[in-house]
Each structure stands twice: as structure tokens, then as C-alpha cells.
Design goal:
This protein is an alpha/beta fold. It has one domain: Endonuclease, Chain A (2-Layer Sandwich). The chain is 46% helix and 22% strand. Strands 1-7-6-5-2-3-4 form a 7-stranded mixed sheet, with helices on both faces. Strand 2, helix 4 and strand 3 form a beta-alpha-beta unit. Helix 2 packs across helix 3 and helix 4 runs parallel beside helix 6. The longest helix has 44 residues. The two termini are 37 Å apart. The N terminus is likely disordered.
């Protein structure tokens, strides 16, 4: 659009000055884009913090063995918020499995933070077949993180939203209608402190093979 508008407008100006003006405007537009992206990410972080505060009010920090807790929410809690809440009850998880149809860059930021800080030792991440094509930037980031930290990343015809986490003998299975990323819909989630369910999901997902080669 800048080139179209500039036809005739810069006639008679020094070519190098015109180039400088265009470069300056391009940089300004890019900076505005970054500012908007940062604002959006900050908003998501605040929203997730509120969600986790809500979970802290209604759920125990650590679900007792053999107990199940069921939650229905009005579009303000995503499934990753449940994992964040579960981390309040343990020092760290030695194994975490995450299955989701899709996820955002802010979700990958949080997961990377947990790995870097030692809150998650071993990770397995399973995503849907739409992830590489419709979430290209996020998929590239996930591939880079998988290579950096050595975790298992599988793209499959997957629409399940499941997490399984283990800390020694303490095991959780989190079943949810919600994807990892936040969305404005009513969602239901069940959290089970169950070794049997943990093993059930881990065994199933370990047998999946990616339909998209990466790395």
C-alpha cells in the first residue's frame, strides 16, 4: 500500500531520502505489531493467573489418592491452568504427558519455563493434525523446543484433551473438553489421582507415531 500511495507523492525527492522514509515507516509498523502482540500475551497471562486463582479456591492443592474432582467453567479456565494448579501440590513432576488439538505461543512459553525451572523433568506432547498447517509458528517453536530439551513431540489425528502427570508414586490424570489454549467456551474437566488412569493414558499415547516428520 505504501508503494501505491507514493506514486507521484515523492516525485522530485532524493531517492535515498525516499528509501529512508519508507524504511522508517516499515520499522514503525513492525514495532506497532510487536507492541500489540506483547499486549495480547500479557492479557492472556493475566487471564490465566485469574483462572489459577479460581482453581486454588475450589480445588485442594493436592488431590488425594483415589479421589476425583469435577469442574465446569464458563470459558475462563483452560486445561493448562489445571496443570499449573497441580504443580502447587508437588515439588516437580518427573513425567508429564499433554495431549491437545492445538496450543498457542504463550502456552509453549509456560511449558518451557516449567522445564527450565525443573518443575517438569520429562515431557511428551501430542497435538492434532491441524497444528503444522494452521499453527505454523507455534509448531515450529514446538519442534525447536523438542530438539532443545529432548522431549517427544507427536502430530496425530488427535482431538483428545488429556494430561497425565507423575511425581514418584503420586499420579494424576486430567481429562478435559478444553484445549491447552484459552478459549471463551464452557468447558468441563475431571482431575483424578489415579495410577491406573495415568498408566492407561501413557500406554496408549506411547504407541502413537507422528504423521508429520520434523527435526
Amino acid at each position: 500500500m505504501l508503494d501505491t500511495v507514493s506514486i507521484g507523492l515523492f516525485d522530485g525527492f532524493d531517492a535515498s531520502e525516499v528509501a529512508r522514509i519508507r524504511a522508517s515507516r516499515t520499522a514503525e509498523i513492525a514495532e506497532q505489531g510487536r507492541a500489540r502482540a506483547m499486549k495480547k500475551a500479557h492479557k492472556l497471562h493475566v487471564r490465566r493467573a485469574k483462572a489459577e486463582a479460581t482453581l486454588a479456591e475450589i480445588l485442594p492443592a493436592r488431590v488425594a489418592d483415589s479421589e476425583s474432582w469435577h469442574v465446569i467453567s464458563h470459558g475462563d479456565i483452560d486445561s493448562l491452568s489445571y496443570l499449573s494448579h497441580a504443580l502447587r501440590g508437588v515439588e516437580y513432576f518427573d513425567f508429564v504427558l499433554i495431549s491437545t488439538w492445538c496450543m498457542g505461543s504463550a502456552d509453549l512459553d509456560q511449558i518451557e519455563g516449567w522445564i527450565e525451572s525443573g518443575r517438569i523433568d520429562t515431557l511428551e506432547l501430542y497435538v492434532g493434525e491441524i497444528f503444522p498447517s494452521q499453527y505454523g509458528d507455534e509448531c515450529a517453536r514446538a519442534v525447536a523446543l523438542a530438539e532443545r530439551y529432548g522431549f517427544r513431540l507427536v502430530v496425530a489425528r488427535n482431538h483428545s484433551k488429556v494430561m497425565a502427570a507423575r511425581c514418584g508414586d503420586y499420579c494424576l490424570a486430567i481429562e478435559s473438553s478444553a484445549n491447552v489454549n484459552t478459549n471463551p467456551r464452557i468447558e468441563q474437566t475431571a482431575i483424578h489421582a489415579s495410577r491406573e488412569l495415568f498408566d492407561f493414558y501413557r500406554e496408549f499415547f506411547s504407541g502413537l507415531k507422528t504423521i508429520v516428520r520434523h527435526g
